[in-house]
Design a protein that fits this description.
CATH superfamily: Clp, N-terminal domain
Number of strands: 3
CATH class: Mainly Alpha
Radius of gyration: 17 Å
CATH architecture: Orthogonal Bundle
Largest sheet: 3 strands, antiparallel
Strand order of the largest sheet: 1-2-3
Number of domains: 1
Order of helices and strands: HHHHHHEEEHHHH
Shape: globular
């Protein structure tokens, strides 16, 4: 399937790994795919999403709230979120009231190894993801893999001979998970994103 990916789509997949590492995460989820799309300044998809009010800074802040960071620098995270008008302490209280104490905790030590505790980041994914300390490839979550599979189906349904970043965005929306939740939290309806992406594809045809 990867041979059908255009250059921009490949940049998204590679960029997602960079985004995950920058956050100290031991997995590549839909949230990292979305961040990679938004990091590609000037690309058609970055421009399209920005036009809907979806920006890299805002999405990254919300991902930090839900998934935390793996660097253990809570003070830096709180300061960054505060700059965006997000009170991390208030968010933590609300999340813990719903999901229990420690729901936003960072790395935990289990069996002498450090693991990233990942709670409710991607529904349908379970267990722990080992933190990547060697610079090797990170594993995609089931939702992220599903996003790429749906991207292929979107490409085929639109009678395209290749998979672009636009198809990956469409796949993320249909796969659900954190990326879709973040988009909704930004006050943007999935159908509005889909309409904007399809319109962009029509104009590019």
């Amino acid at each position: 399937m990867f041979e059908r990916f255009t250059t921009d789509a490949r940049h998204v997949v590679v960029g997602a790994q960079d985004e995950a590492r920058a956050l100290g995460h031991g997995w590549i989820g839909t949230e990292h795919l979305l961040l990679a799309v938004l990091a590609d300044g000037g690309s058609s998809m970055q421009t399209t999403l920005a036009g809907l009010g979806i920006t890299h800074a805002a999405v990254r802040a919300r991902v930090l709230v839900e998934a935390g960071s793996g660097d253990g620098d809570g003070a830096a995270d709180a300061a960054a979120l505060g700059d965006l008008g997000i009170d991390l302490d208030n968010v933590r209280r609300r999340v813990e009231a719903s999901f229990g104490p420690g729901a936003l905790d960072g790395p935990a030590v289990l069996g002498g190894r450090r693991w990233l505790r990942r709670r409710r980041v991607e529904s349908g994914s379970h267990g722990h993801c080992r933190r990547d300390a060697t610079g090797g490839h990170l594993r995609f979550t089931k939702r992220a893999e599903m996003s790429l599979e749906i991207a292929l189906r979107e490409s085929m349904s639109l009678r395209s001979g290749e998979i672009t970043a636009a198809h990956i965005v469409l796949g993320m929306l249909r796969a659900g998970g954190l990326a879709a939740r973040v988009v909704a939290a930004e006050g943007v309806k999935p159908e509005d994103v889909r309409r904007a992406v399809l319109d962009r594809l029509d104009r590019a045809a």
